[in-house]
Each structure stands twice: as C-alpha cells, then as structure tokens.
Amino acid sequence: MDLTLPVTRLPGIGESSASRLKKLRIHSIFDLLYHLPFRYEDRSRIVAASSAQAGETVTLIGRLDTVKNAYTRHGKILQKSVFSDASGSLQVIWFNQPFLSRTIRKSSPVALYGKVDFFDRKPALISPEYELINEGNVGSKLIHTARLIPVYPETAGVSSKWLRSKIFRLLSFLDIPEILPFDPGMLKWKEALWSAHFPASYSDVPPARNRLAFDELLLLQLLALLRRDSWRRTPLTHKFRVNNNLLDRFITYLPYTLTSAQLNVVDEIISDLSRPFPANRLLEGDVGSGKTVVAAFAAFIASQNGFRTLFMAPTQILAHQHHQTLVSLFRPFDLKIGLITGSKKIDNRHTSLDIIVGTHALISKSVKLDRVGLVVIDEQHRFGVAQRAALALKGASPHILTMTATPIPRTVALTLYGDLDLSVIDELPPGRIPVKTWVVPDFKRPASYSWIASQLASGQSQLFVVCPFIEESETLTSVRAATVEFDRLKLVFPEFPTGLLHGRLKSGEKEKVMEKFRAGEYRILVTTPVVEVGLDIPAANIMLVEAADRFGLAQLHQLRGRVGRGDIQSYCLLFTDKPTSRLKAMEQYNSGLKLAELDLKLRGPGELYGTAQHGLPDLKVADYGDLELIEKSRNCARNLLPRLGEYPLLRSLLKEDKIALIQPN
Ligand code: ADP
Ligand code: MG
Predict the structure, then answer these.
(1) 424 in ligand 1 pocket by Cβ < 6 Å?
(2) What is the tens place of the pLDDT at every residue in 334-357?
(3) Does ligand 1 lie within 6 Å of residue 543's CB atom?
(4) Where do the Helicase C-terminal domain residues begin and end (predicted)?
(5) What span, in angstroms and rounded, lies between the C-alpha atoms of 636 and 182?
(6) For residue 298, how far is its CA from the centre of ligand 2 (angstroms)?
(7) pLDDT in tens, 546-580
(8) Residue 8 sits in which domain range?
(9) Are 530 and 467 in contact (CB under 8 A)?
(10) Do the domain assignments include residue 230?
(11) Is residue 15 located within the same domain as residue 160?
(12) To test the ligand 1 pocket, which listed residue (250, 266, 293) has its Cβ within 8 A of the most ligand atoms?
C-alpha cells in the first residue's frame, strides 16, 4: 500500500475526520503511523471486583448488567450498572452519558478502567472508561484497558481513544513493509511501530523510538541531498572569472584589514563562483563578525563579470544601512548601487545597476531583470524558501549567498541544511570589547535607571530599549506596548531626547528616527524586537531588554549584538522578574554558538529562530541533540542517494508535500 495516500483511504476515516486530523498535521497514512504517543498510561493492574479498594485506580474484567438511567436530587442524569466477575460485584456509575444504556447490553463482557470511590455510601467504580470485549475485536485484544495505553496528542473531535482504535486497526491490517533497503542494526520498522504505539512494557519503547527517529532523520537528509542535487542541475549560463588584481585592489581600499576568518570565507566564495553550477551557500557568523563586506566581495566579482547582484535585507532600515555600507565600500570603483524601497517592481529600467539593495520582498515580487548572477540574502531564517524564491527568477539560476547571525549548531546544520554549503566566520574583528551583561531582577530597576542616567549624562552613551517579545510578526499589540513604554520612559529620563521605532511607522519616518539616533540627536531609542536585526550603530553602548525571559538565548544574543560595536565598553541589561539560570548564561557566555546549543537543549529548536516562522520542522521522534544518530543517518543517506531509484518505497516517501514529517512548519 502507498503510505503517502491520504488518511481518507482508511476504513472509518471520512472527510470530516480527515479535516480534524489536519490540525495534528496528519494528512497521509504515513503521518498517522508516525503520530506517536507522548506518554503511556499503565492500566495493566487487573483486580478482582471483591478486592477493589476505594481510592484505587484499577482495571476490572467481567460482565456488566443493564445500564439504567437515573436522576439525582438536583435533576441531573446519571447511569447505574453492576459489574461482576468470578469474585463478586461492584456498582458502576457514570454521569450524564445516557447513550450508554444503548451501547452496553446486559451481560456484555467488558473491561473497565477507573477509580473506585464511594457512592451512596457503597464502593463504586466512578465514570470508568470501558472497552467491550467481543469476538469481533481485532485479534480479540484489549487496547484501551488492561495494558500500557498510548496517550496521543489530541485535538477537538480526535481523542486518544479514537486514535488508538484507528492506529491499532491500521497496524493490524496493513502489510507493513520494511522501508529501509538495508539493515541498520535496529528493530524492524514493523516491530518498531508496534512497540512505539502498543508496547508490552516500558522497556520496549526506547529501541522502538530510536528506530523511528532514525527513519525520520534519514528522510530529512535524503530530502536535503535531493534538493542539493536538483539545485546543482539547474542551468548556469555564467561561469565567473575571478580577476585577482581587482580583488587585491578592493582589499587595499578597505578601511580595515580582513580577519583570517573573513579571508577564508572569501576564498570559499571565490571557488563557489567559479564552478559550473549555482552555489547555495550559508554564511554563518556571529553578530558583528563582518559578514556584509564578505558579501560585497561576492557582488564585486559578479559585477566584474557583467552580472548584477540582488542584495536583500529583512527590513527597510537594514536595506538602507546596507545601501550606505555598499556605496562607501565601492566608492573607489565604478559600481552603480541602487536602493529599492516599498513595493516598486524591479525591471529592466534598472539595468544600469550593478547592485540592487532592497528587502526580502524584492524576490517574492516578479523580478523582471536579466543578468542576475548573485542573490545575497541577509538574516533570512527560512533558508529553503530563499532557494525556491531564487528559482522564480526567470532564466538562469543565480548563485545564492544567505547570511545569518543565528548560530546553527552542527547537529541542526547536518540534519536540515545538507543542501547548503556552510561557511563560518568564527572570529570577531580585533579590538572588540566584550559586552558586560547583567540579569536585572525587578527590585533593582530604580537603581539601574539611575545608573543608566549617569552613563547618558556623561555624554558618551546611547541606549536601546527593546520591549517584551510578544509575537514573532509585529502586531498592533507589540506596537502599542512599545508606545506605552516610550511614554513611560520619557518620564523616567526627561532630560534625554528619546525616539520610538516600530514597524508600523511610515517608511520615511523610520529612516528619520534611525538617522536621529545614529546622529546622537536621540539618546534613547525604544523599539520592538523585530526591527533590531543587523543594526550597526557604533555609538550605542547600552542595551536594555524588557521581560528578557520571554526571549530565546540566541535572540538575546542577537539583541546584545547591537551594542559593543564601537571602541567603548558596552552593557546589556536583561530586565526580568524571573532571573533563571538560563538567563544567567547570558552573563557568562559571549559566544552565540554556545548559547544556541544551550537553548536547543533547554527550549527546543523553535527558540533558535524565533517562533512560528523558523522553518525548522519540529522533529516528531528524533531529537536535534542526538548527534550520533544524526551522523549515522547522514552517512546512510549519502550511501543511499545514488541508488534511491532502486527503492521505490523509500523514494515515494520523499515527496515533500506528501508527509508532514519532512515539511517545515
Ligand atoms: P555582521 O556580521 O553582524 O553583519 P557587519 O558586517 O555589520 O557585521 O560588520 C560589523 C562592523 O564591523 C561594521 O561596522 C564593519 O565595518 C566592521 N568590520 C567588518 N570587518 C571588519 C574587520 N575585519 N576589521 C574591523 N572592522 C570590521
Ligand atoms: Mg549583518
């Protein structure tokens, strides 16, 4: 059976169930098989009716007498019956379930699971779960009682009990093949699925989940490798020639010496650009490590070859900043650099430009421009998206260079970004002074404010205030929160001019506010969390984050990266009413990678990249921390890739839109 078929192909699952299952990200039969319990409930203790004690939760196996409806003194309806087994009998009570009188017939053999308590001063089993035992039961096995019971993630109209029945039927009737064409030295797939859903004992669970986790990682990695393959097969009409003399001149004109990490990456990019297939490189470097100039290098090579570069930033403000940076880096050379803001289309009116700077929106619009040889994408966290978008550029596929300050731990890079080549700038330019970081509990707020005031009064300091993280995308709520904080701080620091920056300001206004802050006219800038990425204002040296506990460590590190860019001591104050040890790690570590790894351990992958939009699939079974399994699956994926055609079953699972397992959120 094709496991990628929709669940509606299964008996007893119609369109309405299917639409409810979508909320659990279950679309295909495969998805249902991989909807694993998040815990198990031990209902294996079977007792005799005569020895059931009040206060105990037990399973009973025997027969039920007729279920009769009755009314309480307050007019509520309840159901009464009597359970008996060889040892004796016990009364059974349900509340407000009148249908039971129809579903349970007299003398029905049943298993009941519930709590024994007193009712009308006599022991009774109260509101038990019941499971009818009849010859028709699949394998006449009990699945809801009398054993370890899987408990699943549920949604409205989809209970664990319902899922349990469907999955049990599926496992019983499906001819479950082995999906791997080799023996990974683990449980068979069929065995693993059975034990993960219906383990005989707790010790059956880990090896089963381990096997399923392996498959999950393997599929992800095969998919990444397939993407890489197909990207590399797209036609490239331009093979760049690199003129070393010109590059040397570019380097000579730089206002600083490149670090050796920057030089290494420049080398990697040069060899990328001289290959006959399009590059797809991810450049990872801590905030302030100097990624922009490296990208400028690549743009320079493209322009030398008569091709233009699209240079994209996540926000308008950053686009402006990049534009300024590039204009000044290329001043000694004859390069035309344009900035496109708002919703303007780019088309052949812009053919005279060598570099076009804009926001990420540039590429989602139809770009009608030929000779685009390179696309630089700054701080885009959904890397796969970038690639797909670049493909939308008609004609030849450009080289892609994506840059991020989000430190991607090795395990994540191995699992998910196998289709990208990774470069790392692991060194900061010399002379940077580490930012002093303090976690500030609420009671120290007044003292902190007077300390900040004294710093500002010295004339050397500027202050960023970042309002609490409310939602990933900037909603009216977070804008309002920033506005309130702005009004409040004007009273706290009346003597210092204060600016307010958020995404709902008109675009011209944002730039005005930024310029005033950059020029030192504003001494304080109040912002929302979304506007801050990548800002480079060397004079700003104090970062104050409100409700810091709501942020991931990697995000806090990003925020902190806004200061510490000049040659004066910088400070980062993390305000919180929950000074946890997680936050304290910020005081201790200055490495983004270290903090990202901690976050990965403590809060899961979602936090690495902000929330909903991170583009990382939530692994269903596997765990980003399991380096050993990740590496094992990666090696297998590499070996399998060339022979994938011989394994139709495995190949069929690698359709990106078919199984939820490998789809980004
Ligand atoms: P990020 O990697 O965070 O994007 P930027 O490219 O904005 O960092 O660079 C941060 C700052 O460091 C800029 O002011 C830039 O001019 C400066 N810079 C970049 N490379 C060097 C270097 N090798 N030596 C000194 N300063 C550098
Ligand atoms: Mg940057």
Answers:
(1) no
(2) 899 999 876 666 666 777 899 999
(3) no
(4) 444-606
(5) 9
(6) 15
(7) 999 988 888 888 889 888 877 889 999 999 998 88
(8) 1-37+151-175
(9) no
(10) no
(11) yes
(12) 293
